[in-house]
Structure formats: structure tokens, C-alpha cells
Amino acid sequence: MADFNLIKWLREERQSRKLILFIVFVALLLDNMLLTVVVPIIPSYLYNLDETADVVLKNNSLMQQDSPRAFHSIVSLYDNTVRLSGSNATARSTDLVPTTPAAAELPQNSSDCPQSTSKLLNENVKVGMLFASKATVQLLTNPFIGPLTNRIGYQLPIFAGFCIMFLSTIMFAFSSSYALLFLARSLQGVGSSCSSVAGMGMLASVYTNDEERGHAIGIALGGLALGVLVGPPFGSVMYEFVGKTAPFLILAFLAVFDGALQLFVLQPTKVEPESQKGTPLLTLMKDPYILIAAGAICFGNMAIAMMEPTLPIWMMETMCARKWQLGVAFLPASISYLIGTNIFGTLAHKMGRWLCALIGMVVVGISVICVPFAGDIYGLILPNFGVGFAIGMVDSSMMPIMGYLVDLRHVSVYGSVYAIADVAFCMGFALGPSIGGSIAESIGFPWLMTIIGVVDIFFAPLCLFLRNPPGQEEKIVSFKTHLNPVKQNPAERHRQII
Length: 498
What we know:
This protein is an all-alpha fold and 498 residues long. The protein has helices at 2-12, 17-37, 41-65, 101-104, 117-152, 155-174, 178-206, 210-241, 245-265, 281-285, 288-319, 323-328, 331-351, 353-370, 381-409, 415-443, 445-459, 473-483, 490-497, and strands at residues 72-76, 81-85, 90-92.
């Protein structure tokens, strides 16, 4: 009976703006949990796979030299065990005396301190490319999703995003090779594009008041923030104590809940095109004010995107950080992002969104420059907190400005403009890890942080142009004509009536 009442309530509340906001909140939460849960897992997991493969190769070469009947130990850095070839016996590495030179080289704390610093630095590029694949695919998909939402509505794309996300999560859980992990990450990009573009467009269409829209988008970005907040520590703790598969299976279960909610509330089988034709995507991309807002989103998020693959590796290299610490290091940034988006979702409208974004960009730059000065995990708390809080200021200001600029300068259809906003977000998370991994390998992590910090600080003054953007000429003329109809040329007025 209770289940029936719940379903009945959901059907009655289908057009409720709050319920739509909750669905978008959950969709962004799951997307960004999957985005960040891999941050502490993948660098360590790939390094352990490579190290284990090297040890196996060394032992195989030694087996060819020795008697075929002799037993040889294979040390696994993944679970810190020694396996005896030729038998099913397995023991902890601390309980056995190594019988081969390869095993003898490994210290007791091999799970904490990496064996080869050069090999660890080489992981920067592999991990960076893997992390960037999601954003790159999302970047390529967004230009198609934005116009598609104008034609078929927002319900079907956001549900398609859930289905693709669920498949990607299952692939992450059971993939054990770099190629399959790369494919799962790329597939996530398609699902994320559907969810974020359709979700933001849906909010902009149901919250027409500028102040209410800013508040609603701030709450939705809180879901993004919560995903970023929970993802890294959740992934690192689960990976350390349960294994790689468990966190992804839990995310898959939560995704099923979100999919069921969408089925009842949004009715994704219905096609509901926009009532008016939106401004073409290329026209929006040529608008300098939209480009400035997109640039702030891109460069602000690029800072944390560069840190995601490189900070765990730098911590392993300089701090001998344990697996759980690799994710917990991002906790201050996640908490402060959640705080920032909730505070400035409303406050940015009162203080001026351009000013909020300008201050945020400067604080991002200063904070990332301070990151390499940390000597241990506790030294990362303050700069990472500053990074997250400032990015929250930028995102909660620029996302509502995108909708406002379309209302002011173009046709009030939001799929394409939020596709541009998501493209900007994705460019940060595509270029950040791929370029960041290469720079960190070449000149080091401290210089990488300095470069992106300086870029953010120099970009900040451009936000001044968003202080009072001009409206579209036709809309201004129409507005003036409405105020002063007598001054209008009679022939021109007759032509407009026709």
C-alpha cells in the first residue's frame, strides 16, 4: 500500500520543479562520483599491474635458467603476496624469505613506497590519457546533444545518459586491463554529455526567473560537488579495504534508483520539442560574452583536472602515501566546492556574478601555486580547500550567466548554450589531465601547478566584460518601441503588424 501511494504521489508531482531539480541533482551526483571515484584507484591499480607484470617476466626468465622442477616466488604488489610457481601455495610476503633476486629487491613496505620512481613518473602520461578520454568523448558528443534536446526535449536524452552511465559503471567494476578501463571511461563521456546538457537545459526551462534559476543551478551543482566530495575518499577507502570492484557496484545500484525515478517522473518515452527554434550552436559560439563565461569554466576546472592524475603520483613519490590517502587528499577541495556552490548560488546574484567569478579565478590561481609547498598530506588541506571553494565560486556564477546571456542576446532555448558550457567544462577535464601528465613528467609537478595558476590569474580580468553585457539589438529596439510607440515610423509599424 505504501509503495502504491509513493507511485501515485510521483505521478501527481511530475510537473513539480523541485522533483525535477532533485532528479538532475542525483544525475550529476552519480556522474561525478563515477568521475572522481577512479582518481585514487587508477594510478595505484595501473602501477601495480605494471609492477606485477615486470616481476612475473623476471621470474619467467629465471625459471628458464634454473631447473624446471624448482619452486620460484612471484611477488605481487597488488595484494602484497608471494605465489610459488609450480604449486597453489600463497603466503604473505612478510612470512617468506625471498628465493629469487627479483623478490629480494622488494622492501617490506612495498605497498606504500613505489619501487621505481622513473616508472612511476611514466604512469603520469598513461593515467592522464585515461582520465582525459571521458572529457574528450564528452567534448565531441556535446555539439550533437545540445541541438538534439531542442528537437526532442530533455527527458529522453537524460534517461539515455543514465543507461550509458550504468553500462560504463559495470565495465569499470570488472575491467582488469588498461584498454577496457579506457573504453569504460570513454563510454562514460557519452552518458555524461546526455545527463549534464539535458539536465541543465531542463532546469533553465522550468526556472525562468533569473534569481530562482541561479539558486536552482547552485543546488544542482551541489550534486556535482557532492559527487566530487564523496568520490575520491569513497574510492580510496573501498579500494584499500574491499577491492576495486566494490565501489563501482555500489554506484551501479544507485544509478538504477535514479533511472527508476526518471521513468516515473519524466516519462522519457515522450518526445517534447521546444516551442520555438533555438539560436544555432555556431552563432552562440561566436558570441564573445558566452566565450568569456565558457573560458572561466574551462580554466577554473582545468586546475583541479590537472591535479587529479598528477597529485596522487606526486604524493606516492614524495610522501610514500598509502592508497587511502590518495583520495582523502582531495577531500578539502570537495568539501569547499560544496560550500562554495551553495553559498554563491544565491550570493553571486546579489554581489554581481562577474565579480564572483573574477575573485574565484584569482583564488584558484594562488591556491594551486601553493599546493607543491606541502610536505605531507596535512599541508595539502589549506591549498586544496582554496582550490575547491574558488572553483565553486566560478561555476555557480558562470552557469546561470550562460542562461542569462541567451535570454538577453538570443532566443530563450537553453540546450545549445549548456552544451557550450559543458564543452568548456570538458575541455578543462580533457586538456588538463592529458597536458598535465606530460608536463609533470617533463618538468615536474611544482612547475605544472605554477603554470596553470598563472593562467587562471591572467584570465580573471576578462570577467569584467560580463559586468553589463549588451542585449540583442532587435530586443532592445522592440523594448524601446514598446515604451514609445508614437515615435515609431508609421510605415515601419505597419510592416511589423503584418
